[in-house]
Amino acid sequence: MFHLRKYRSNLPKLLADSVDLESGNLMISNATSTLGIGWTPSSDEFHFQHNVSASENVTKRTILSSTFKIFDPLGLLSIFTIKPKIILQELWSHKMDWDEPVPPEIRNSWLKFSTKSSCLSSLKIPRCILIDNASFVQIHCFCDASQRAFGSCIYLRSISASGVVQVNLVCAKSRVAPIKPTTIPRLELCAALLGAQLTATVLAALRCPIERQVYWTDSKVVLGWLNSNKTKTFVAHRVAAINELSNPSDWRYVPTSVNPADLVSRGVDPDQTDLSIWWNGPSFLLESEDSWPAYTADSIELPELKTHHTLGGEDASSMPDLSENLAKYSNLTTLIRVLARVLRFVKNCRSNIKSNRLRGPLQVSELENAHSVAIKLAQKDSFPIELEQLGKGKSLNSKAALASLNPFLDENGILRVGGRIESSSYQYDKRHPILLHANHFLTKLIFKQEHLRLLHAGPQHLLASIRERYWPVGGKNLARRAARECVTCRRFNARTMDNIMGNLPADRVETDFPFSTIGTDFAGPFLITDRKGRGCKITKSYLCIFICFRYKCVHLELVSDLSMEAFLLTLKRFIARRGKPKVIYCDNGRNFVAAAKEINSFLESNSDSIKDSASREGIEFRFSPAYAPHFGGLWEAGVKSAKFHLYRVLKNIHLTLEELSSLFAQIEAILNSRPLCPLSPSPQDLSPLTPGHFIIGRPLTSLPSPYLLDYSTNRLDRFQRLEQARQHFWKRWSTEYVTELQQRTKWKVRCRELKVDDLVLIKDDGTPPLCWRLGRVSKLFPGTDGVPRVADVSTSQGTVRRAINRLCLLPSPDDCTA
Description:
By secondary structure, the protein is of the alpha/beta class.
């Protein structure tokens, strides 16, 4: 990441060429950089170069271009450069583009560093690191770590013949802590390893004799690890590497307050001036060794290395308790192979002859042995009392749960069923199946594997196949549970929810003029010709139906295409003939018939424009939920009735526009002449009540009229007689037709209560069940009776709104175990 990387392999040569033995000077060649150190032959001091960008427009490219040019091969600037290293690590974790502005916190940190780095231009360090006529030279390595970084620094302590002591910084190295969080003691151990490696590099590079090496750390845990033999893998590897590079007796404790490596791990602002502890080490190094910090061995709890021992043979009674470890596997094949590997390892460890050790792929005999061991462990967990009694040669009590099976132990110590078919010619496993309990995890894995092997067989077939080798106690319930818990079987057996039929809205039962509340839908296409005779051009046309909510009055219109303009023209023709409605209901779903897809896609794509146009006319447009045609059963039934007559008349004939429009008018008259309710048993009632009674004679704008049913017909004029007849029809409608609506013809009971956070499948008739989207209910929409029939479902592709007849409720784990 820094220029130090390309000098790392040549660091011994760099150090060897940089130290003049005669003068004791440290020499570093100059380099072109934004921030670095250099020297001239005429100068006895290092000078610092500075060219770090402090632009207000801070991007990733700006920081990288400046950071990569930092020239500090010996790490003399580590206390300053560790901060841009940390900024660089944060920058990479954000995964930003090159020219994208950095976050405010990173921008502020970079501007603070780049602005203060100019203070380093006035900083000068003597190049002489050894005292004149040095008679005794020591190396002191200091290590420290923080949550963000760790590092180490090397000092030369030289003593002259007259006893004068001089301490100078030789080199240092810093590293950013890994992004994955770890403990401070582990980071302190990494810093100690870095210090030992750096010291070994310096010792190999310097040509002056070194009398002693001393390593300093402020972590007592690290000192305890270095003198301990029981550590975990992470610690053990690093302790071994440190002990190879240094002697544990050379490691000493230093308080954090006088540890110069603490500046490396935490970083220092470039404008800080009091840095004598960094350039010349702690003050106690200038004194005799008696005044150095002493290490007091406190009682430190160090993590121990846990070991497992195997005892006895390879049978289940002598094996350690592996049930808890084996229970984490969800596949029987994986469990058996893992157990076989464990048994092979145990056998190889006990074998003194190298040629007898097993290698390569697992053999069939090893897998069979592992299977037998797993069976013994399962039986030991499920039937400990029975195994103990039969192992002592005792028979089971007649009241015991397994007494009816007459169990026994075979030559391998496996509990089997005695049974009554000993004299049959079946195989041994079928005559004496292995006893297992349905509640054990191994039995569940066996049922799961057999269910998949039998290509998702049902519970009865599954249990019959299992009993060819095993006898599971409580196997019937486990077989049903295994089939229910299979995700694939759940998807194929998923059933949609049909809640109880809802209450009728006020628009269906309150008295009002015909077509004040209507539902509309499309049907078709129907092929028409442009003229009669040969050479005619065949085009598509569609049927638009308007049906009254109260009296089931039907109005049919011929539509040339499915454009929004054509529909609005059709609506205007309807208003001109039948009057302006108050509310229009419309289907907003897709049916999986080709014609219905085309029609409903038109409604979906133009729903907003239709709503806007209708609102300007004072009409409220309401759309039913998607994929819920049963919400518009009234107009769906009208379309069905219209098609019933159309297809029988049309057959394969192609009519013209006028002929088809005339046919629609005739069918409309037939539909409006259907009885609304069963005929009255009275012989005086000669005609049934039909939708036509509410259409004929009704003006488009009717004025309020007095109640005329109690008046004699002879006293009324012609207009009043017509009004009396109309009121008579409405009275019959309220007394005869409305009472017929009380009974629910289907969806008579409530289904299971759908709740928020229930897991459901969204049914899609165009895809197989395994491709149905999985979602979780986020919101319910109950009706006036409190029964929810529409729900919002959160899926991986967003939230969708569906009626519950398109949702398949998946059973919860509690339902499966019930």
